[in-house]
Amino acid sequence: MKKPSEDTGLIARSAGTVSIAVMCSRVLGLVREQAFAFMFGAGFAFDAFVVAFRIPNLLRDLFGEGALSAAFVAVFSDYDANKGEAATWKLASNVLVFFGILLSIITLVGIFFAEPLVRFMVDADFEAIPNKVALTRLLTMIMFPFLVLISLSSVVMGVLNTKGRFFVPAMASSFFNIGSLLGGVTLAFVLGRQGHPSIVGMAIGTLIGGGLQLVWQLPTLKKAGFSFTPGLNLADPGLRRILRLMVPALIGLAPLQVNVLVNTYFASSLAEGSLSWLNYAFRLFWLPVGLFGVAMSTAAMPVISRYAALKDMESLRDACVSALTMAFCLTIPAAAGLILLGEPIVRVIFEHGRFDAFTTIKTAEALSFYAMGLFAYSSVKIMVPVFYALDDTKYPVIGSFLAMGSNVLVIFATIHTLQHKALAFSISCAMTLNFLFLITMLYRKLNGLPLIYLFEGLGKVIIGTGAMVLWLIFLGRSSALALLQGQGIALEILSLFISIGSGAVLYGFMLHVFKLRELNVIVEKLVGRIRG
């Protein structure tokens, strides 16, 4: 790697900015989940909400944060680098108009066919519970417009990221959580007192949050120089190129969404509450994915897209490996921590109100199995945009189909013994297979990668994580720390803080001794930002 420090510093600086914003969002997201846990626990109402939100959310993953986002950033970066400001802003306006119309039509169709969609997603055991399908249908109809709001928000986010603005778009999801939390909880109490299902208020709050997420970014978009040009030009070559990139990307992402549908179907056939346990666990799992995987992907995408547009393959290889090394550095110890400390983490965050000790155990079990695939999940988010930047989407498509097949096979092989844990385990296995396939194809596509550098970094991370794991096991068996557990929420938090803090310090010290460059760069950028 000839110039890793430059690429590593740029990605780390941007990723650090994104991570700070994502941390705010994820903390607020956990508060939102705490409100759900306190008010509804695990069971009838929250199971219905999970299924209802999953339908527009699946389409959001395809259009908003999946195919549309990746394809748009690749084309927008090319326009920004080679075609001038006027053409670039004209493209952004045309894309906003086109997808605003298209997604509005999809939303209307989804609302009309809400009940068949719900029945398609769930097992007969779910349908057999009185009024559960009717409630799920109502929640689906309310939340479907979320698709339009969040997808347009993702386009705006892509524009700002390409222009080097990371903090404001990354903070946008915080405003989603604020709107959905404050609006949702308020409406839940109001509707509950009027004899309506309280969970309906949380569904309306989701729309409020989606609107705030879009509106929050608009002033920064204007400051970046954007001037909206009304009108729709279907012959625009930039729009057509985005659609051309999106078609195989949609095909590639579809199997991942099929995995979600399959897992939803199987979870609805298990004990009542399984959907809730898996959802709460996934929310905790998504915290490090957002902090590390999404942040690295968001920060690396403009850098990689620029190198691809300039045909600088050597710099692109270095930037890609540096981003993967940073992801390994952060996600592998995070996964170990979630596995070892899952139960106390769930207990401290969620075990209040209607969320009982039994639900804590079941949620922690699912969290442990999700955590096994954390490094792969985050790494795939970094690698897929590389293929998009290179205008080659066939490998992400193939990887997605491999993931879908392995997900189904693992479920059938393990669901009778692992029950709800099988659905978390299957996702981890699927993403690990996808990761191995994509990194192999990326190696071939780029005519090699600095693998020695990557494996050296991975080895240091594994040794450091091993030391941290031994320390956490020792602490878990310590009589002094055991005295803090089960003695009230304040002492539980103190116990967890001691475990996480001391483990992180030991891990950081080990990597500092090993001179892992990525960690040093991350620390330097963080210290520099703190000092202003």
β-strand number: 0
State which percent range the strand residues make up. Answer: under 5%
- How do the helices and strands follow one another from N- to C-terminus? HHHHHHHHHHHHHHHHHHHHH
Class by alpha and beta content: mainly alpha
Give the C-alpha Rg.
Answer: 23 Å
Question: Which bin fits the share of residues in helices?
Answer: over 70%
Q: What is the distance, rounded to the nearest whole angstrom, between the alpha carbons of the first and last residues?
A: 30 Å
- The overall pLDDT, averaged over residues, is 80
Question: What form results from the Cα inertia axes?
Answer: globular
Q: Uncertain regions: pLDDT < 50 for 5+ in a row?
A: none
* Largest β-sheet summary: none
Work out the helix count: 21
Structural write-up:
By secondary structure, this protein is mainly alpha-helical. The protein has a domain at 44-246. It is 85% helix and 0% strand. Helix 13 packs parallel to helix 18 (451-476). The mean pLDDT is 80.
